[in-house]
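Researcher: Structure for this, please.
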Amino acid sequence: MIRTYLWERKSWILFFTALHLLWIFVAYIDTAIPLQPILYMVFISLLFFIVFVFIRYQKETRFFKRLKEWDHNLNITGVDAPDTPFEEIVSDSLSEQANLLRKAASENRMLLEQEKDDLLSWIHEVKTPLTAMHLMIERLENQSLKAPLKYEWLRIHLLLDQQLHQKRMSFMENDLYIEKTDLETVIFQEIKTLQSWCIQKGIGFDIQLDITEVLSDAKWLSFMIRQLLTNAVKYSTTSDIIIKSDHQDHKVTLTIQDFGRGIDPKDLPRVFDKGFTSTIDHNDHASTGMGLYLTKRVSEPLLISIDVTSKRGEGTRVTLTFPQKNDFVQLTGV
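Model: Predicted structure, token format:
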């Protein structure tokens, strides 16, 4: 801070120095003025000036030191009252700006909440005609027309579902209900949802569930598995997707392995980043870069760890490791 203060007061210091040098110069060239008394006066003046600068440094920087330690929460009540008129101008200006920012932040927060509520309401409203559309598609007898319609319907359904859960994530902790969840029921339900898409692509499932019960929230776990299965089907051709559960280090693991295009090794550290799409086929407009990001977001409150391994052209394996009961003590209270 002292270096900053001296630099701020450099003009005063330069003026003081130049003035005293002028006195010495005048005494030097004018023989009528004795040089030694002038040097003595300059020396005494310099001592007083150093003491003066030290005192002013302590006084003038006190306010700015407190301001520098301000916690930046738009509340300057923790900053002590200013000592000088200029500090008072700064303090008043900061208070006014902080009030304006708090007001703007509050208004923006209300607008965002309103937009979120409107979007959630819209999604729920859209689900009604979407359900009716699905029933009409099921009544079609023309299979060559029915299959692509079901596929397009499924895409809309999955996108709406993804958007709905994404908007609910901000208050996900309030919605959690941790209980014993049957993996087989959850997985088969999600496979059934993707059935028409899998038939169209010639994709089957090899399911090996040695462990069928985990401790989790059934609704949010279903969403996670839905994102992983959607990715596996989307980026695979005719092949089987292997789903198996096991015990590792006293914890239940669920592995979903496909044999699709895979992920480039350099992309693996970024697969959970929002909006990141693979560099293998960067022009793939079907990729949104949201599936694994949302899966990761949901996994954190559920205490589920995710591991992704992949080789380009050989497929991708995603492993979910579920927590033990003791890990959920704070959430379940048991």
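Researcher: Any notable elements?
Model: The chain has three domains: 1-58, 118-168, 179-332. The radius of gyration is 35 Å.
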